[in-house]
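Purpose: get a first structural picture of the assembly so the mutagenesis plan has something to point at.
Setup: two entries, given in the order below. No constraints added.
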Amino acid sequence: MSTIDRAHCESRDLDDPLRHCRDRFSLPNGIVYLDGNSLGPLPKTAPEAVSRCVSAEWGDGLISSWNDARWIDLPARAGNLLAPLIGARPDEIVFGDSTSVSLFKLAAALLASSSRGKNIVSETGNFPTDIYILEGLIRLLGGRHDLVRADMGDVEAAIDDETALVVLTHVNYRSGAMHPMARITEKCRSMGIPLIWDLCHSAGAVPLDLQGDGIEYAIGCGYKYLNGGPGAPAFTYIRTSSQPAFDPVLTGWFSHARPFKFEPDYDPHQSIAKAQVGTPPVIALTGMVEGLKTFDDVDQNTIRTKSLALSDLFMALVDQELSEHGFEIVTPRNADNRGSQVSLVHTQGYAIMQYLIAKGFVGDYREPGLLRFGLTPLYLRFADIWDCIACMRDAMETGAWDRPEFGERKTVT
Amino acid sequence: MSTIDRAHCESRDLDDPLRHCRDRFSLPNGIVYLDGNSLGPLPKTAPEAVSRCVSAEWGDGLISSWNDARWIDLPARAGNLLAPLIGARPDEIVFGDSTSVSLFKLAAALLASSSRGKNIVSETGNFPTDIYILEGLIRLLGGRHDLVRADMGDVEAAIDDETALVVLTHVNYRSGAMHPMARITEKCRSMGIPLIWDLCHSAGAVPLDLQGDGIEYAIGCGYKYLNGGPGAPAFTYIRTSSQPAFDPVLTGWFSHARPFKFEPDYDPHQSIAKAQVGTPPVIALTGMVEGLKTFDDVDQNTIRTKSLALSDLFMALVDQELSEHGFEIVTPRNADNRGSQVSLVHTQGYAIMQYLIAKGFVGDYREPGLLRFGLTPLYLRFADIWDCIACMRDAMETGAWDRPEFGERKTVT
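Result (structure tokens, whole complex):
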């Protein structure tokens, strides 16, 4: 294999069909942002949209904006913008609540309407909030379920006749490794086991075909690859054909068939609105809509092609430039088994990441020893990857990372 | 009793100790806003604060703003701003999630950690989402509880040895009638029955003394009297002395003692942070903080004094100006028994309210026949009340309200 240089990377940028999308974001000067898997950057249209929501819609329109500015439609409007990006149909997605609450509302409803099995199967290395939420739900239900945590490769074997529910995050937040979604879904479907996919690290990052794969239930984060802003609402997906049987238990008034009739008894909406709970977070949803618009006219396969090219380049450059410096690539090399990030392990990972951040290459760090680099095709350039690896190589060769000032900062996933 | 005229109202405005607070809001020209019990108006500082959050903190600071802009502290920071307004101590309140979700998380946790009783007592006319949430929770728990709904005056009698939990909204959203909070709390305390107060229509509107009254658990809305913006996060209060025993069941990662250690097992935070669930809604919380700041340097008793004066004036003017036009005041005349709104019933209530809104007097309407007028001391003037009643009187005398164009608009509580 021939040596890769910066000129090679620059030439790939010239050929990049997503090159124009970078201009959709306000990116700070001097920063190469490799943390879009934690918090997506600001869409250029978001400040004006949020400002209009606050000053004109709230300030001038007041209560009438629920209708006049169509605040009431925001959860479904955001959902319908997301739909083509994850292979869903219209009216299968609503935004609102956090990812944690969204998982709870699906998992609780599915357990309440089924008496099959006693085990809730998840992955040992699942993002902790998913595990915590399931632990809390099990306790609430009196401890009649067990949480079964299997390593990624053992998940399918752990799904059996004793399984009540399966909850899996499609792409692992640490390693970037990806579950075989279609195969696991088919296994659960054939056994009649409800399955919830957490798409936090895949929606907007890897191709999804919720319709084609027969996915019934999914949730996902708005503030990572979907660029919805800090703490943006999460989304909840329920397949059209599964909506009639879905019986909500987190039964807030926005899931009611007629919320503004203020009826004394609960009667769920017959659409995806049954997955809503309380009053929609209007200002946050306004930011969320602008995040989703950054995907306008971009198809999933183009994103995936560039995502894999970026991560192939990243790993090739780790091999080429950093082979003597103690880094291990923990993300699967096989494209079918990974999402849109590359993770490295290094015994001095924390200080190295702090050094990189100080130099403008913003990834993040997770104990123990894990450096995460989110590779987001809408705004990253191939030359950015070169520059990041070059910075790491220089730091390792000169020992520049090994100074006390690179020992304190922490970031949030 | 002498006749009240506009000059009398104007003179009261000149003596109003809260007169300066009106300037804290951006109020549209030509509008008298009597719907702050549904959606508070825009604080003047909110557009700049939200814009800074979006453009500088998110756009420029990116992920580092979790620490550098103290996003991580927003739920508790908002809580500590609210504390003096409801007689709570520092570190007893967090903001986040909707009112519906906040009620669920308290009610579910209290039922999960107690086996006493089978009845959940609430008020027949409670705001529907509270009833719906309790119905859903009962179903999730397998139907071993019954929901007992008592009329407002019968609630205390319904609390007995069979009671597992009491959930009451302090001020009724329709009538504005107010429960005797201290007395009901003491009854529940003496019987060992957990009690959740919903403060949606009282926080920021009527004096509360959660500490003095021995309140253990409360939730409330951010977007009504607290002026936090459309769909603003709700708050959850847990008394300091009740926090150690409170065992969350909606166990998202932000309720964990060490969320950023990404530990495999759940271990709740030992502070009020245990009432958080998922990632905080940063942009919405930024608006919420500005809403709470509109109460800076204003004490509850001054607010209450003006609130009662406004509602006394409103009712006196209904008696004086509208006595021949078929209105009935359904809000209690006794100051001890009402919140900060006045509600009227009229057979033609819907069309009359649409007329008023068209003329710039923005209240709202609830079936059947209910006209609601929220009386918010920070920005309403005594002369505004005069003008509203005068508009109603003119409409009734001329029949101007009775035109087809006043038959379509709807608003949201």
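The domain at 6-30+298-407 of chain B is CATH 3.90.1150.10 (Aspartate Aminotransferase, domain 1).
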